Amino acid sequence: MTKAQTDVLPESMLEAMPEARPDATQGQADAAQFIELDRLSKSYGDNHVLEELSTSVARNEFVTLVGTSGCGKSTFLKILLGIETSTSGQLRIEGVPVHPEPSPDRGIVFQRYSVFPHLNVRQNVALGREFDRTRIFGRQFGAARRETLAEADHWLEAVGLIASAEKYPHELSGGMQQRLALAQALLKQPQVLLLDEPFGALDPGIRKDMYELVLRLWSGHKLTVFMVTHDLSEGFYLGTRLWVFDKIRHDPHAPQLYGSTITYDLPVHVADSERQRIADEVAEQQHEAGEVDEVGKEEHAHA
To answer: What is the C-alpha to C-alpha distance for residues 31 and 60, in angstroms, rounded to an integer?
Structure first.
């Protein structure tokens, strides 16, 4: 295992977080039960993916999820989004079980974004609102359309993409595409924002700009965020809380027999020694699973 695999944070990222960020425990006293996982499990036939997840999340927390590929991180996001159902247990928001369908109070950004190539940036953002308000035709006219386009412009301004509002998707860089995806997700003003490896395909410089954007949106709009990442430094830098997904029971003859659970639930401001210990353990998991962190490879190559 290389040093690059276990070096969690570059020195610049160990600096204090932006002042606008709330403390990891802020609001837990009065909103600790905003989202509850009650013995949540998920299986696909005989393949057990998630096993007995039980915890709670307060409003305005930023939870980052790390673990090896296939450990159930994205499956958990899909259950929270409402496009997958749990096999057993329950996931509740404000005490109400999550219905098996998407809802405007939960928005998502994937690594690969989805747009209509024949519509420009502004039109793609506005389309979500138009579908809501005109379900038959999916298009508004007159004053109603001008209002929706103005709303789209508001979110394009918020994500720093207003200057490209008239561009088409094929004219956008990778970072601009992810800004568009954020604007689409935020248009309906969700309480919960889900990010499924949104920055994995971006260059390091662009990725850093996106970090600052996401932190500003999170604190400014009082979002509760869940983000899947394979990059530990990203998880520690962005989150107020970090979950490590792994299996605590293994059967080498039937690896699908047991699912992953949350093996570590850490506040980000944990001591550096504890960070390093967790980083070493997750890196070992990735090594055993045959994974190599692309950032780690780059750093090792230039060491």
So the answer is: 9
Helix, strand or coil for residue 106?
A: strand
Look up the pTM and report it: 0.79
Distance CA 218, CA 197 (A): 16
Per the CB < 8 A criterion, the answer to whether 214 and 195 are in contact is yes
1-12+24-105+224-303 topology per CATH: Rossmann fold (3.40.50)
- Radius of gyration (C-alpha) of the chain in whole angstroms: 20
Q: Where are the alpha helices (DSSP H) in the chain?
A: 3-6, 28-31, 73-81, 121-133, 142-158, 174-186, 204-220, 232-238, 272-288, 294-301
The distance from CA 141 to its chain's CA centroid, rounded to whole angstroms, is: 34
Q: What is the residue extent of each domain of the chain?
A: 1-12+24-105+224-303, 117-189
Contact 185, 109 (CB under 8 A): yes
Q: Is the pLDDT assigned to residue 17 strictly greater than 70? A: no
Cα–Cα separations (whole angstroms), residue 15 to 4, 75, 168, 269 = 20, 33, 38, 11
pLDDT digits (tens, 9 = 90+) for 117-159: 999 999 999 998 887 777 666 677 788 889 999 999 999 999 9
